[in-house]
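queue> pop job 88
queue> type: inverse folding (structure -> sequence)
queue> payload:
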């Protein structure tokens, strides 16, 4: 790599935290506004307890990496930042719902999330389930608003893409495959997955929403099909890399830094590339995925430097 390219990489990496923080702050403000206590047309009232639980689950924490991907993917094509933030808010609501439900005793049974009690611990299981349900449906409320895009056809494309990323053939389906591998069914016998099956499961469970974030940003910006396909490839690689990095954090991370219990995957017989390939093998796979992500957006040149920095961030994160 030449000196100029090294300088470009260093500049993009240096600017990345500021850009990530800016999107996080704007997303936080938008989520806060959307989760206001006042009912909107078509609603009757917003019951205080479930609204409080929704706000607890979605405000005041997280890197907002999915909204960041949506915003930066849209800006790559000259898209409107406020519209992209609406897409980012929608995917963040889906992500937060999934965390609330994943933490439940019937799923991962976690007591901590982002260093504080999980939603069912802070409230109760019934309220947590309803808050998660409400966050999921609210995501599609957000995408359906003209504020997200004035063209109904664009909004339909976004709704369809997010529904498929979050549902049966996406995140929910991936979670089912993960539970099956743990042995939650079939008389409690773990069902080990090989590398290919593990990658499919992880691309659904974790990767699908990250992939949507990239493609959703391109859609709301009016990018053509070829450009959307490039962001699809980038998002797919980012999604896989994010899960591998997460698995490495579980295997090696400090709970105080990560913000939740670690070293749980091995005890639960979870299907991970760390289990299949070992720590060193998983790190090599992670490096390959970062290279794959960078290659997917190579045609956009320096305009995509911040997305390349995002790929490196995924690989290097410590929480």
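queue> result:
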């Amino acid at each position: 790599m030449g000196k100029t390219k090294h300088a470009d990489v260093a500049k993009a990496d240096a600017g990345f935290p500021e850009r990530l923080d800016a999107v996080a702050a704007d997303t936080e403000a938008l989520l806060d506004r959307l989760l206001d206590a006042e009912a909107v047309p078509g609603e009757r009232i917003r019951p205080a307890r479930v609204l409080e639980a929704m706000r607890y689950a979605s405000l005041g924490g997280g890197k907002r990496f999915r909204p960041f991907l949506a915003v930066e993917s849209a800006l790559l094509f000259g898209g409107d930042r406020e519209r992209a933030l609406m897409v980012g808010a929608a995917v963040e609501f889906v992500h937060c719902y999934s965390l609330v439900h994943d933490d439940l005793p019937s799923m991962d049974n976690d007591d901590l999330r982002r260093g504080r009690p999980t939603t069912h611990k802070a409230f109760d299981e019934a309220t947590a389930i309803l808050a998660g349900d409400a966050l999921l449906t609210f995501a599609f409320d957000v995408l359906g608003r003209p504020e997200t895009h004035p063209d109904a056809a664009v909004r339909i494309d976004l709704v369809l893409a997010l529904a498929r990323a979050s549902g049966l053939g996406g995140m929910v389906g991936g979670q089912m495959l993960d539970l099956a591998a743990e042995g939650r069914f079939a008389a409690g016998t773990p069902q080990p997955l090989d590398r290919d099956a593990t990658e499919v499961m992880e691309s659904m469970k974790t990767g699908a929403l990250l992939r949507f974030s990239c493609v959703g940003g391109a859609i709301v910006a009016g990018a053509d099909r070829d450009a959307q396909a490039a962001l699809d490839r980038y998002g797919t690689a980012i999604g896989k890399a994010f899960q591998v990095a997460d698995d490495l954090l579980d295997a090696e991370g400090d709970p105080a830094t990560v913000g939740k219990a670690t070293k749980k995957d091995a005890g639960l017989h979870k299907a991970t590339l760390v289990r299949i390939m070992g720590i060193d093998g998983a790190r090599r796979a992670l490096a390959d995925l970062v290279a794959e992500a960078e290659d997917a957006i190579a045609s956009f040149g320096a305009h995509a430097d911040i997305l390349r920095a995002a790929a490196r961030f995924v690989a290097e994160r410590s929480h």
